[in-house]
Design goal:
Blueprint (H helix, E strand, L loop, with lengths): L5 E4 L2 E6 L2 E2 L6 H7 L11 H16 L13 H20 L24 H35 L7 H7 L3 H26 L5 H43 L6 H49 L4 H40 L15 H14 L4 E2 L2 E2 L2 H12 L2 H4 L1
Antiparallel strand pairs: 1-2, 2-3, 4-5
Helix pairs in contact: 1-8, 2-5, 2-6, 3-4, 3-7, 4-7, 4-8, 5-7, 6-7, 6-9, 7-8, 7-9, 8-9, 8-10, 8-11, 9-10, 9-11
């Protein structure tokens, strides 16, 4: 059988035999690795190693350390069952099976006999918020693990969390994420301590525990996405270094490096896009509904400790809503920084033989890079810093309901 030469298509090398395309010689996973070949290992202090170890434990507990398939011993089975259970538990209040949270638990306050005139409407708002939180947490986790496993089957260039955390995330980024994570856990603990005082009975206790664990899985999906976005930022920086180090090359060499980066970025975005959209809308709706609930509490002159508790819950929701938005915008920003930095250089910056020694090649590359729109892009919409700020104000827009 006559064999033809290899061809390059979309960043992968194929061998054609009588016009029959066989398996690629270079997988997309290798495309991800190629961007980091010449980079020295990131320096890791003891503090950074501890932080990464904490994230490793968290990701392993909820089954997000790798993107392997299901197994009977997989923690994903356990946490998926918990997410489904807590949705059923919360919806039972909303649908009237246990109206006003009266299954086996009542508000133990001494002034129950003196009900406020709008208590019924207030309870309905609380039930709607609780149902939204439950659906958002369950959907976030279940959709996330589905997206990650599908990416593995497609031989995606997506980097698994084990590689991203340990090899491709800078210490500053992982420390900032850890501080935000600790602040989230403190706020969750305060909210948990407050609400557990008013719970009694096995059903309510189990339901509350399931809700806590479901939101624990949701925050870990956000952290995995954040780690992946940080890894893409490192990939963009490494791609820029590879472009700088080209010697006696052509413009095609620069485009090939940039295409490798875009392949990794778009593979990661396509893997997470469904989860990102559903997570963004469900937690956005949860934030708005909960701010409305807080406004009702303020109007009804709730006790100070009650408002502190509600403030902690709001912080947790804002964390889950804003972290993915900021990380998506960060991916786009890092990709755009490549051609922005190159555009600020002169011919004296580049060594002899580099294609950017000719300013015309710089103009051609910048034009190509802008048209390529490498970044966090879903459909025709590129998620940039402006959309991240829009998400922030969208999350706080419900305050107008009170004022």
């Amino acid at each position: 059988m006559e064999e033809e030469g290899p061809t390059n298509r979309g960043g992968e090398v194929y061998v054609q035999m009588n016009d029959v395309e066989t398996e690629p010689l270079l997988s997309m996973t290798q495309t991800y690795s190629n961007l980091h070949l010449r980079r020295e290992p990131l320096r890791t202090s003891r503090c950074t190693a501890f932080v990464k170890a904490v994230f490793k434990v968290c990701f392993c507990v909820v089954g997000l350390w790798g993107h392997h398939a299901w197994s009977y011993t997989d923690p994903r089975v356990f946490f998926s069952a918990i997410c489904i259970y807590q949705v059923v538990f919360e919806l039972s209040f909303l649908t009237g099976i246990c109206p006003d949270f009266e299954c086996d638990a009542m508000n133990n306050s001494e002034d129950d006999e003196v009900k406020r005139p709008d208590d019924k409407h207030h309870h309905q708002t609380a039930e709607i918020c609780a149902a939204l939180f439950s659906v958002a947490a369950a959907m976030s986790y279940l959709v996330f693990i589905s997206c990650v496993m599908l990416a593995k089957r497609k031989d995606s260039a997506l980097a698994i969390p084990s590689q991203s955390v340990m090899k491709h995330v800078h210490s500053t980024e992982v420390h900032l994420l850890f501080v935000a994570f600790v602040f989230y856990m403190i706020s969750t603990s305060v909210a948990w301590h407050h609400i557990v005082q008013f719970m009694s009975g096995i059903v309510s206790t189990v339901g509350l525990t399931a809700a806590f664990l479901a939101h624990w899985t949701s925050v870990n999906t956000c952290n995995v996405f954040a780690v992946s976005s940080f890894a893409l930022g490192t990939s963009a920086q490494d791609a820029l270094k590879l472009i700088r180090n080209i010697q006696n090359g052509t413009l095609d060499d620069v485009l090939r490096i940039h295409e490798d980066l875009c392949t990794v970025v778009f593979s990661t975005v396509s893997a997470y896009s469904v989860w990102f959209v559903l997570h963004w809308f469900t937690y956005g709706a949860s934030v708005i509904a909960f701010v409305m609930y807080i406004s009702e509490e303020i109007a009804m002159k709730a006790p100070l400790m009650e408002l502190v508790y509600l403030g902690c819950v709001l912080v947790c929701l804002l964390y889950l809503f804003l972290i993915p938005c900021m990380c998506a915008a960060r991916i786009t920003s890092h990709c755009a920084a490549i051609y922005e930095e190159i555009n600020c250089t002169t011919s004296a910056y580049w060594s002899e033989g580099h294609p950017f020694k000719d300013r015309q090649n710089v103009a051609l590359f910048i034009s190509y890079a802008k048209e390529r729109q490498c970044g966090f892009k879903i459909g025709r919409m590129t998620f940039n810093t402006s959309l991240a700020w829009f998400s922030f104000f969208f999350g706080l827009a419900a305050l107008l309901y009170h004022f």
